[in-house]
Amino acid sequence: MDVSRLLIVSNRVAIPDRTGAVAAGGLAVALGEAFRMYEGVWFGWSGKVAAEPASRPQVINKGQVQYALMDLTTSDRREYYNGFANRALWPTMHYRVGLSDFSRTDYDGYRRVNHNFATALAPLSRPDDLVWVHDYHLIPLAEELRALGLVNAIGYFHHIPWPAPEVLATLPGTTELLRSIACYDLVGLQTQRDAENLRRCLITELGAVSDGSDALEVAGLKTRIHCFPIGINSNQIEQLAARANSSRVVRQMSADLNSRRLIIGVDRLDYSKGIPERMGAYERFLQDNPDQRGRVTYLQIAPTSRSEVPEYAAVSRAVNEALGRINGSLGEPGWVPIHYVTSTYPRSVLAGLYRLASVGLVTPMRDGMNLVAKEYVAAQDPANPGVLILSKFAGAAQQLRAALIVNPNDKVEVAEAIRNALHMTQKERVCRWSDMMQSLREHDVSWWAGAFLKALKRGSPSALKSAHVVPVSARS
Ligand code: F6P
Predict the structure, then answer these.
(1) What is the DSSP letter of 9?
(2) Quick check: CB of 459 below 6 Å from ligand 1?
(3) Does 158 qualify as catalytic in the annotation?
(4) Does residue 442 surpass a pLDDT of 90?
(5) pTM to 2 decimal places
(6) What are the DSSP E strand ranges found in 280-386?
(7) What is the pLDDT of residues 272-282, one digit of tens each?
(8) Average pLDDT in the 223-239 region?
(9) Is 140 helix (H, G, I), strand (E, B) or coil?
(10) Interhelix angle for 234-242 vs 371-378, to 10°?
(11) What's the chain's average pLDDT?
(12) How far is the CA of 430 from the centre of ligand 1 (A)?
């Protein structure tokens, strides 16, 4: 595509290590893929906290990408990251209104960091750069950039669910965020439902009107809203899984299993992932199917996440409580029903563990997409694949319709799905797997990045953009 540069902005920035490998994690891998097509700048938080606010980013050059990293202050981290982004927006967008904790101080900190990021980013931009902003931490960024005079095409991709208007409206500050979102030329969401929810929010809260094409008009601004389900690099996962026996962890796990069947779950330790609920469903499966005791092992990998936020400490306690109860009451000498680890593993090891597993248990209470579901499928042996059990509330369920789709709130349904998965014929497993693989190959991560950027490039930036916007941080 005829683009001089790509300017990506996200809260986390994944710098390749000495071997050129990027960190595990959906966003890092996906954005790494975008940079295989373009040269450019990746701007975001350094992950560090400094005593003084940074006015200029630290710049690191690696290959055709320039990484521009901003430190946050202690109050930035508390108010912007732990506060408004992860204690207010995250639970609300995952439909957990009861967990959402709004504070005006946090909201002001969120707007302040967006303002500071825009101020530091603007001098790095060139007039024909495509600007692509990611994730709920940075919704106000385009508004701030427009106020600084940027007329570039600016797109935003929302990696998490977008809730129904009635849910979003419970959170103070979201009307302003909707005004901010209208400053993007293109907004990408994971599913049609998310895209429809955002359209309804703009119409009901701001009186946006359709222009007759795919755009909505709000206060003189035009924004296009589309669904671009994020994909994986399925070829790479297939290759990693096929040669995973070189990993010590995978070989050890395979030996320890002996002839037991493996059920696997891999998630950040987050209440949206439904880990205690999943353990409860597995407990129910063992109670209802006593012949399976000692014949299956459930491995749950759950790296600790956002541990300064109280709700994350609470989910960690709930997981440990379920784990102790189940292993204590159902375990036997020589057999532990659930293996639980909080370490982070490289993608090559995860791919090998996925391939060993007869069942991939992916049952979030709500999830934007869930790339573990996709990677589990891509890692399977085509001749003898495992079975994916997938929550109907994960965005991936819109594409992976040949999975066993379950409601994660119903532990009897999930327990029955585990039994059905373990008993499924090879013929049915191959048939379901082929169906899912076709969708993963057609809509892989290169398709995702290419489709979004092509659509962003097609809609030329409107001259109105710089004229009408007064960012919230500059309003009295
Ligand atoms: O799923 C949303 C998301 O922000 C991802 O983009 C990111 O990789 C993940 O959550 C991790 O969150 P955090 O950066 O807070 O550890």
Answers:
(1) E
(2) no
(3) no
(4) yes
(5) 0.94
(6) 296-301, 338-341, 359-362
(7) 999 999 999 99
(8) 95
(9) coil
(10) 50
(11) 92
(12) 33
